[in-house]
Amino acid sequence: MQRIALETTDLAVRYGASTILNGLNLRVMQGEIYALLGGNGAGKSTTLNAFLGFARAEQGLVRVCGIDVGDDPLGARASLAYVPENVSLYEHLSARENLEYLLNMGGRTGTATTINTLIEAALNDVGLAREAWDRRLGAYSKGMRQKVAIALAVARAVPVLLLDEPTSGLDPHATSEFNALLLKLRAQGVTVFMVTHDLVGAAEVADRIGFLDHGRIAHEISAHGPQRFDVQHLFQRYADARRAA
């Protein structure tokens, strides 16, 4: 039976006098790619912060892999990997060194050989060129940095990946590589939840696309058939959501 990876129930989040999420009901299943779109101020970033435990719920529930984020934010966060729009890693370290340091910080145990094998498998899994593994990240492109961040998630074996504007600033080739990586992760059972403005990119990989409007899901569309989505219909829904924002 497919399990629920991410869930909000009647979620309300307010900042001061402003209501950002207003009765948000959302379910993302294990091994699903879900894309959340909406105009500026619709509540997309707040939704990510709610799953991360950084946005306090005024009412309703937030769960990650069945863990109530309000009751156990650290436990919920242990099941997640978050990749922001601008990946923050250590510029003076190589990809291998970044992963080794961050895994150690996260409490990963094992011999040096075991950890190195795990790191190399993760870097290989995300498709980072082997000759780049020992180069400092200061010389990396944005797409390469994203691969390192996702390699950390792979090495940690977390079941859920949160992405904030993952294809922003990527050229078409890098975007294609990134989407192929997401499909590979989905095939391994990883849940991917992305916030994006890239409607065409989302349509290429998402199993479902939700349109957020004033803190609620206004429309939700599932991929169907060989064409997956009616892109013209998606653009109309997106335009409606942006006009309403």
Would you mind describing this structure in some detail?
The protein is an alpha/beta fold. The protein has two domains: 4-79 and 159-244, P-loop containing nucleotide triphosphate hydrolases (Rossmann fold), CATH 3.40.50; 92-157, no CATH class. 37% of the residues lie in helices and 27% in strands. It is built from eight helices and ten strands. A hairpin with a 2-residue loop joins β1 and β2 (18-29). The relative contact order is 0.18. The model has no long low-confidence stretch (mean pLDDT 90). Residues 6-239 form the ABC transporter domain. This is ATP-binding cassette domain-containing protein. One of its GO terms (molecular function) is ATP binding. Keywords: ATP-binding, Cell membrane, Membrane, Nucleotide-binding, Transport.
Assembly state: single chain
How many individual helices?
A: 8
Q: How much of the polypeptide forms β-strand, as a percent range?
A: 25-35%
How far do the termini sit from each other? 37 Å
The major sheet is characterized as: 6 strands, mixed
Helix content: 25-40%
Structural class label:
alpha/beta
Uncertain spans: none
Tally the structural domains.
2
**Strand order across the largest sheet:** 6-7-8-3-9-10
Shape: globular
- According to CATH, the fold-level topology of the largest domain is Rossmann fold
| Overall average pLDDT | 90
GO molecular function: ATP binding; ATP hydrolysis activity
Protein name: ATP-binding cassette domain-containing protein
Keywords: ATP-binding, Cell membrane, Membrane, Nucleotide-binding, Transport
Domain ABC transporter: 6-239
